[in-house]
């Protein structure tokens, strides 16, 4: 029995070691990151680490030496005394000096971290259950960034890829060598926007605006996650930053704005039922399937089924209303600002014609865009 | 032993309580001859001075960073 257990543990350990070596970039230490601040944080971390190592060596060194040197077999006898003011003062002053010594560089780094003045670019980051919205203030551009890892990988029906749960449909594109200010807030519960390579980890709190900033040195892809438990899909709202040169950023901005206009224009033309169903399925899997499931069956007791439901097979106005405006007191969000008119029309059409729901009618994007007009993003600003 | 602690001794006792270390001899003296109100008042005064010192320290640190 004992032998079997040992073998099992042994092979388990072997597997664990193999798995660890298979992940080439896996390290135990903090990342030095790609910004001036992240490098200061890393240096601070290493400085304090080595101070701790030195303290441990001295304290345990003296302890072990004393135990060994004054052992009983050598005839050592305990010296009984109650207190010694001098020794107490010494062991209070030394830690005090060490703490002050650590506080000086730590304060310098903190002051730097909090100085978000003179930023060239402002990006508002809003946390949603469970996605991020990025708003390029002054550039009339905003979009949602959703998890793009396929459902099959999450449910183990397909192999997990390299960036499993760390990939999104739209990257937060940022220019390098530019001071960028992040304004963080939330639409529902407290989230936390965390990108280790930038050494930025800041809470996104509903009703508050927190500030952070960065200047990225090197172009590249930097990944992060939500760092504040925010509900069911807390682990499914990653952050992906794509840092590009300043010229590429201007080009990207122009392209993204042109795309946005094309989407708005697309709502004006007439869509066929097939087109709507096709796009609707994509939108559904991206925006709805997390709760209502790809099969439309929902989760009994938590998220209602859409398959054969009263709303998805009933009056179209009520269906449009709940998708656009959500339902307060439940997890059902308002999607009017999250999806474009054509996406909304497509997904509603899809829900009314999929999984055996067969109303055969199409909701047109033009119909939705008329409903969106009074409170679209631009009107609010 | 029953001598009353002087103002200076009271101050030193309060400061050593801030520091967290006091000799047994001083403790005996304080508890035999001292009056609690003196220590409380000195303590409040020193706490206020400590807060002011921290405020000044932070201002100084921020002014260094701003420069």
Automatic annotation (TrEMBL), chain A:
GO terms for molecular function: copper ion binding; cytochrome-c oxidase activity; heme binding; oxidoreductase activity. GO terms for biological process: ATP synthesis coupled electron transport. Keywords: Copper, Electron transport, Heme, Iron, Membrane, Metal-binding, Respiratory chain, Signal, Translocase, Transmembrane, Transmembrane helix, Transport. It is found in: Cell membrane; Membrane. The chain crosses the membrane at residues 48-68, 89-111. Residues 275-355 form the Cytochrome c domain. Subunits I and II form the functional core of the enzyme complex. Electrons originating in cytochrome c are transferred via heme a and Cu(A) to the binuclear center formed by heme a3 and Cu(B). This is Cytochrome c oxidase subunit 2. The gene is coxB.
UniProtKB/TrEMBL annotation, chain B:
Pfam families: DUF2970. It comes from the Bacteria. Keywords: Membrane, Transmembrane, Transmembrane helix. The chain crosses the membrane at residues 39-62. InterPro entries: DUF2970 (IPR021344). This is DUF2970 domain-containing protein. It comes from Marinobacterium marinum.
């Amino acid at each position: 029995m004992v032998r079997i257990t040992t073998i099992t543990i042994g092979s388990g350990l072997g597997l664990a070691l193999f798995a660890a070596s298979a992940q080439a970039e896996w390290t135990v230490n903090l990342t030095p990151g790609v910004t001036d601040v992240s490098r200061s944080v890393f240096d601070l971390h290493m400085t304090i680490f080595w101070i701790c190592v030195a303290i441990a060596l001295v304290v345990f060194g003296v302890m072990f030496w004393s135990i060994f040197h004054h052992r009983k077999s050598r005839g050592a006898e305990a010296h009984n005394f109650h207190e010694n003011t001098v020794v107490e003062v010494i062991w209070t002053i030394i830690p005090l000096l060490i703490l002050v010594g650590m506080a000086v560089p730590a304060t310098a780094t903190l002051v730097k971290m909090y100085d978000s003045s003179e930023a060239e670019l402002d990006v508002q980051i809003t946390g949603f259950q469970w996605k991020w919205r990025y708003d390029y203030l002054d550039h009339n551009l905003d979009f949602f960034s959703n998890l793009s890892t396929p459902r099959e990988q999450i449910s183990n029906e397909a192999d997990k890829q390299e960036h499993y749960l760390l990939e999104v449909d739209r990257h937060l594109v940022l220019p390098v060598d530019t001071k960028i200010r992040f304004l963080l807030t939330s639409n529902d519960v407290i989230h936390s926007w965390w990108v280790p390579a930038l050494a930025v980890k800041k809470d996104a709190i509903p009703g508050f605006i927190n500030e952070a900033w960065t200047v990225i040195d090197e172009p590249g892809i930097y990944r992060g996650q939500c760092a504040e438990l925010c509900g069911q899909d807390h682990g499914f709202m990653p952050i992906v930053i794509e840092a590009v040169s300043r010229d590429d950023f201007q080009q990207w901005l122009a392209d993204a704005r042109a795309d946005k206009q094309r989407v708005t224009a697309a709502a004006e033309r007439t869509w066929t039922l097939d087109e709507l169903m096709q796009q609707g399925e994509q939108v559904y899997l991206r925006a709805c399937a997390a709760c209502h499931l790809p099969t439309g069956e929902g989760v009994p007791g938590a998220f209602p089924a859409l398959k054969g439901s009263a709303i998805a097979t009933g009056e179209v106005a009520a269906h449009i209303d709940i998708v656009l405006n959500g339902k307060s007191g439940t997890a059902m969000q308002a999607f009017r600002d999250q999806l474009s008119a054509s996406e909304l029309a497509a997904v509603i059409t899809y829900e009314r014609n999929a999984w055996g729901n067969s109303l055969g009618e199409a909701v047109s994007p033009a119909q939705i865009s008329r409903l969106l007009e009074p409170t679209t993003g631009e009107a609010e600003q | 032993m029953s001598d009353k602690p002087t103002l200076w001794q009271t101050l030193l006792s309060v400061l050593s309580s801030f520091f967290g270390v006091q000799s047994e001899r001083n403790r005996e003296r304080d508890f035999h001859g001292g009056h609690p109100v003196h220590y409380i008042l000195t303590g409040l005064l020193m706490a206020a001075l400590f807060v002011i010192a921290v405020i000044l320290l932070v201002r100084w640190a921020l002014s260094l960073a701003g420069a």
